[in-house]
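Methods, example record. To illustrate the input and output format used throughout this study, we show the complete record for DNA ligase (ATP). The sequence lines were provided to the predictor; the line carrying structure tokens was produced by it.
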Amino acid sequence: MLAAPVDAVPDAPGLIHEPKWDGWRCIAFREPDGVYLQSRAGRNLTTYFPDITRAVRTLPPGVVLDGELIVWERGRTNFALLQRRVTAGRALLRLAHDCPAHYVLFDLLADTGGEVVLGLPLSERRARLEQLLVDAPTQLTLTPQTTDTQQVSDWLVNWTVAAGIEGVVTKRLDSRYDVGRRGWWKFRTRLVTEAIVGGVTGSNRSPLTVLLGRFDRRGRLRYTGRTHPLTDAQREQLGGMLSPLNPLQHRTAAMVHPWPEPLPASWSGQLERPEPLRYVQVEPTVVAEIDADVAFEHGRWRHRVRYARARPDVSVYDVPLLLGEEGSYFGEP
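The corresponding predicted structure is encoded as:
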């Protein structure tokens, strides 16, 4: 079951709210002879999470669970450590020992013995899930739920930065589980902020998307993310402000461009790695106002951001520092 994006947290009788965890969605099948972990896209994750399969083995055969795989580091979810499970190779068992994963559970698809419970209301599926987890290992965690809008506000204001959640998922207590249907709602915490234009796809006169950066504490411009495609009006406005950075300009440019071209595939932060990204480097003197969510790792936004407009009134030196190096996430002192 999936969640449709919304611009505000729904508030009506019969609704329940849960934190939206920053991890990998996973369905766990407790089979008679073992455990099978499946990603949202249908990928087999079993071999990458021996610690989770061991924990799920303690549950009765036939059980099918829905939840989110996460890894904690110093009290906050760390998406990069989650990704390392796929590339760890022979170091996987050591990684699982040093940085154990947790499986945050929020639904039950089949109960003990394989009893399918998709048609039961969420409130009853939740009650059964709670009972299943009474004596379960600590790595199997039940996600919090609330009907209190004040609690939801606390999650959005405090948990997004401190714990690393992305927002809130809202569900109907009387809803059945419809596989593949968007019957839930998800609200992502977002903020309006600024970043420096360091490159574009397309051309500098007609940019399609924008590659963004911020300075770190040493004054080096670091790549922080990429925008969604620009509108025609945005392309026209920004294209008239960009200056190309070619080899002959490096000595006279306001700042030397520090990013490789093409942009490495690993910088995208996705599970399925794309090809290296060809782009046009520009002189990093233009500031862009953007709308971004709060999911970031290694100083980069993991999801594409929304480009709003250029800010010729703002100096690149007034843009907040690299994500994680500001006084606070929101760039406040």
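Annotations derived from this record:
The two ends are 41 Å apart (CA to CA).
DSSP finds six helices and 19 strands in the chain.
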